Amino acid sequence: MRIGFVGMGIMGAPMALNLLRAGFDLTVYNRTASKCAPLMSAGAKQAESLPALAASSDIVITMVSDTPDVEAVLFGNGGLAEGLKPYSTFVDMSTIAPSAAVRFAARLRNRTVDYLDAPVSGGETGAKAAKLSIMAGGDRPVFERCLSLFQAMGTSIVHTGPTGSGLKTKLINQIVGALNLLGAAEGVRVCQAAGLDAATTLQAVSSGAAASWMLSNLGPKMASRDYSAGFSIRLQQKDLRLAMEFCRELGIDAPGVALVFELFTRALESGFGESGNQSLIRLWSA
Domains in the chain, ordered, with CATH? Predict the structure, then answer.
């Protein structure tokens, strides 16, 4: 099975590397070609163009930033669609609008190409350790065909329903995660204002009902002012924008989403975009 992978960013590169380690025949492409060098050193081939990558692959995976990026990579001039073979499979692991995934799948279906949306959670740490959570939407047989690839990149792999369901699930994940992150940031701020030892407080709180991944993993970083990016403010704000749009489409009131979207937008506008999402706490820094 020949795999093509587009997007050698902070998530895509380690995900692709884990496919190589699992023994898959891998061809990679990135707009900035030099970002493919570590993968080539590990044994991957590099495609000269998106159509060339698509033409040489049975399954093509993309991991890029936003809905317009996926559309451009797929259907733009010189895009993957020009080379995708009939009966091949396209898997988008980016976080984009669920409605866009449905449209893209319909367009590819006319070319006899299968489609899965399979966004991930776990950040750079999970990508490097092959411990991502993968939420897949699409036809069950297509999911089963791609399962061995997902198992090389993640540990929690769930088929969530038809096309778009993986993305809907991911947006729920981002809502819950962002609200937990806000709670963690506020807890760290109160801890510091009260003169408590941060490590002791985080240990105690993380052992009870207030425990969360955000508190355990990003709480210590906020306390020590470590703002390195595992998942950036820019991407967190983008995902919350998608979540806001999704909630509007559903016609539901979502005050928590509105609050964290506003706060992450402020963080982005404050120049924290490429810092880790724990940098939200800097909105209240002296």
Answer: 2-162 (3.40.50.720), 168-284 (1.10.1040.10)
